Amino acid sequence: MESSVTTAVPNNTVQQNVRGMKGWLKLLGIVQIVAGILQALTLFGIIWAWLPIWMGVILNGAGNKAQEYAEKGDPQALAEFTGKLKLYFIISGIMMIVSLVAVALSLIVISVLAVLGIISLPTLFDSLNR
Fold it and tell me: Which one, of 21, 22, 15, 17, lies nearest residue 74 by Cα?
């Protein structure tokens, strides 16, 4: 249940927080773009190298909007900044879910193969003893 009491946050506090984020967002964006480019150089990584590149572009765009809001105090820039962060976190969350499902499936496959290997050991030993 939401409280009906609101507290006013000074606009300069929001601008200072956003100003402090812009450099980190741009740094992380560049790192993700470089990581995506390096992934694209591998045979297997080329399949999804576009994803970290796209996420890096989103972070760089968020950094640019953060800078615009910090300098001008434009509410539209703040809305675009938070929109880009929302998109980044949605993509990141979906990637996390997909990764967890892939790990779970991999563990199941490995477990089944291990059990099948253990079950077939007596047959293997019998064939070696003949």
Answer: 15
**Cα R_g (the chain), whole angstroms:** 25
CA distance readout (Å), 74 to 11, 68, 69? 11, 7, 5
CA 13/CA 87 separation, integer angstroms: 24
Decide: pTM greater than 0.85: no
The first and second tokens of residue 94, run together, are: 């979906």
For the chain, the structural domain boundaries read 11-129
Q: Are 70 and 22 in contact (CB under 8 A)?
A: yes
Which residue stretches of the chain have pLDDT < 50?
A: 1
Q: Which region, left, alpha or beta, applies to residue 108 given φ > 0 means left and ψ of -120 to 50 means alpha?
A: alpha
For residue 53, what pLDDT is reported?
Answer: 95
Closest alpha carbon to 79 in 92, 66, 93? 66
* pLDDT at residue number 124: 73
Predicted confidence at residue 93, as pLDDT, reads: 97
